[in-house]
Amino acid sequence: MLPKFEFGDSVRLVRNVRNDGTYPGEPTGRLLIRRGSIGYVRDVGTFLQDQLIYTVDFIEAGRRVGCREQELQSLDDPWIPTRFDFRDKVTPLRPLAVGGAIIARPGDEGEVEKTLPEHDGGPACHVRFHGRVLLVTEASLAFINPEKEAGL
User: Fold this and answer.
1) Strand 51-58 and strand 38-47: pairing?
2) What is the CATH class of 89-149?
3) Is 54 exposed, middle or buried (0-12, 13-18, 19+ CB in 10 A)?
4) Domain spans, the chain
5) CB–CB of 57/64 below 8 Å?
6) Whole-angstrom Cα distance, residue 1 to residue 35?
7) Sign of CA dihedral 60, 66, 67, 69
8) Residues 6+ positions from 99 with CB-CB distance below 8 Å
9) 3-state secondary structure 79-129
10) Do the domains 89-149 and 10-74 match in fold?
11) Is 11 exposed, middle or buried (0-12, 13-18, 19+ CB in 10 A)?
12) What is the pLDDT of residue 152?
């Protein structure tokens, strides 16, 4: 189990990191660092002897956070930003249909289950509407709560 990153390496977070209960002073579930943020590796350790954990210093946010290797990428790797995150509440901008049957209409609430930044037609998401998961391009979605897009 050799580390991919070393002390001082610049890394980018590829997933949002929330408090799992181990970050002091913040409630469990609180967003600690947003994906796309850049940090610097300060230490490498292990968890349960089979997972590498990197202590990453996110200087702009003023936080040091433990990250798993799969949550990080080298700053040299290509980065495709996306608008939506896992569990965001969204609505389609136009009716969405499968086999001619409309599954979701504008105003219907859906939940993002996965983001796909490298989708052929541009960034897309797996979104659950009324118990069905649909592949929807980001351009066809809007936030249910407009303040979410503004970061409020």
Assistant:
1) antiparallel
2) mainly beta
3) buried
4) 10-74, 89-149
5) yes
6) 25
7) positive
8) none
9) CCCCCCCCCCEEEECCCEEECCEEEECCCCCEEEEEEECCCCCCCEEEEEE
10) yes
11) buried
12) 42
C-alpha 69, offset from chain centre: 15
- pLDDT, tens digit, 9 for 90 and up, residues 105-127: 999 999 999 988 888 888 999 99
36: its two tokens: 């796309």
User: What's this model's pTM, rounded to 2 decimal places?
Assistant: 0.68
Span 24-47, pLDDT tens digits: 888 998 889 988 999 999 988 877
CATH number of 10-74: 2.30.30
Lookup: tokens for 47: 């968890």
Task: Give the integer Cα–Cα distance in Å for 142 and 137.
Answer: 11
A 10 A CB-CB count for 35 gives: 18
